[in-house]
Write a structure and sequence with these properties.
Layout (H helix, E strand, L loop, with lengths): L14 E5 L10 H13 L4 E4 L10 H13 L3 E6 L15 H5 L5 E3 L4 H9 L4 E3 L3 H5 L7 H12 L3 E3 L5 E2 L19 E2 L4 E3 L4 E10 H10 L13 E5 L7 H13 L8 E5 L12 H22 L4 E6 L10 E3 L2 E5 L4 E5 L1
Parallel strand pairs: 1-2, 1-3, 3-4, 4-5, 10-11, 11-12, 12-13
Antiparallel strand pairs: 5-14, 6-16, 7-8, 9-13, 10-15, 15-16
GO molecular function: carboxypeptidase activity
Family: Belongs to the peptidase S66 family.
Protein name: Muramoyltetrapeptide carboxypeptidase LdcA involved in peptidoglycan recycling
Length: 347
């Protein structure tokens, strides 16, 4: 596969599309959404443009595909930023005009269910960006996290290498978005475990492939946006799990099936995001959260030892469903320097 190309970046003052390719939550939960739009305008100097399905829950896959087509084909739109994730974006993919999107390359930002579109764009030859939703990152209560804002600013406006930073604190516990009081102060942070390295005896550099593990499993089951396994030889795999908090055995089962497909052995380096270990449905305490993360790490290692025993692995990297969140380029270059314990991405 030819290396994906980086679309031209926006500049302050430009128009950017804000889409809901998955869930129309901005219509139900306007507080973080409006805050995120305000920060896009005031802090990043961009002019957000909404589309018909952006605030509409229950939009059909066809309507959401129409918004994607309109955003990519508009010559005045310089980037596409998602409002939030969801759970059915895979139904949008069959309605997309690949030739239209390919002819109008633009930076695309999203994660979680947007793993569908991120890998769709990679297959079209475009680098896209895993991270940066309007409601969660731009709309963070109190203030954007400095590391999140720095990474998003670099990914939006600059090109070249960017070093990821391990934070001293992170957040796992959410507060309700329907409550105005939530947005009066920053979230409570907890001490963050540092990155954990395995087999860090070399430097690996390759194109990024991956995303949310649950969505990857759905794409694999539907046989969409995934090439023959050997196509990814030498790439850097990155994986993270969502607030659905799949059990360790489920994580192992998904990775085992990826291994049986011949995928895992293609990747000489694997980045694993800091696992989300609290949700409104699963309100784990401190010891329970630590156990959940430990068991997930063990499940990942178990699968990799079986199917990719030589891979270098880094756990608890801050991307995906975590705060702070750093942007990972899908199809872009990732350099994992084991001896120096450093990670660089190219935006």
């Amino acid at each position: 596969m030819t290396a994906p190309q980086y679309p031209a970046k926006p500049r302050p003052g430009d128009l950017v599309a804000v889409l809901s390719p998955s869930s129309g939550l901005p219509g139900l939960l306007p507080l973080p959404y409006e805050l995120g739009l305000r920060r896009l305008r005031d802090d990043f100097g961009l002019k957000p443009v909404e589309y018909p399905a952006t605030r509409r829950m229950g939009s059909s896959p066809e309507d959401r595909a129409a918004d994607i087509h309109a955003a990519f084909s508009d010559p005045e739109i310089t980037a596409v930023i998602t409002s939030i994730g969801g759970d059915d974006q895979i139904t949008v993919l069959p309605h997309l005009d690949r030739d239209l999107v390919r002819a109008h390359p633009k930076p695309f930002f999203g994660y979680s269910d947007n793993t569908n579109l991120l890998l769709f764009l990679r297959e079209l030859g475009m680098v896209s960006y895993h991270g940066g939703s309007v409601m969660a990152e731009f709309g963070r209560p109190g203030a954007m996290h400095r590391l999140t804002a720095d990474s998003l600013r670099a990914a939006l406006f600059t090109s070249g290498a960017y070093e990821l930073t391990a934070p001293h604190t992170s957040r796992d516990v959410d507060r309700p978005w329907e409550e105005p009081r939530t947005f009066e102060s920053e979230p409570e942070m907890e001490p963050a475990e540092g990155w954990t390295w395995f087999q860090a005896d070399r430097v690996v550099e390759g194109a990024g492939w991956g995303g949310n593990l649950e969505i990857l499993s759905w794409l694999l089951m539907a046989d969409r946006e995934v090439r023959p396994s050997a196509s990814y030889r030498g790439d850097v795999l990155f994986l993270e799990t969502s607030e659905d908090m799949p059990a360790a055995r489920e994580v192992f089962w998904i990775l085992r099936n990826m291994g049986e497909r011949g995928l895992l052995e293609q990747f000489p380096a694997v980045l694993v995001g800091r696992a989300k270990s609290w949700s409104f449905e699963k309100r784990l305490g401190g010891e329970e959260k630590a156990r959940f993360r430990r068991e997930q790490r063990e499940a990942v290692l178990r699968a990799l030892r079986q199917y990719a025993p030589d891979a270098m692995v880094v756990f608890d990297v801050d991307f995906g469903h975590t705060d702070p969140q750093m942007v990972i380029p899908v199809g872009g270059r990732i350099r994992v320097d084991g001896p120096a314990r450093r990670i660089f991405v190219t935006y």
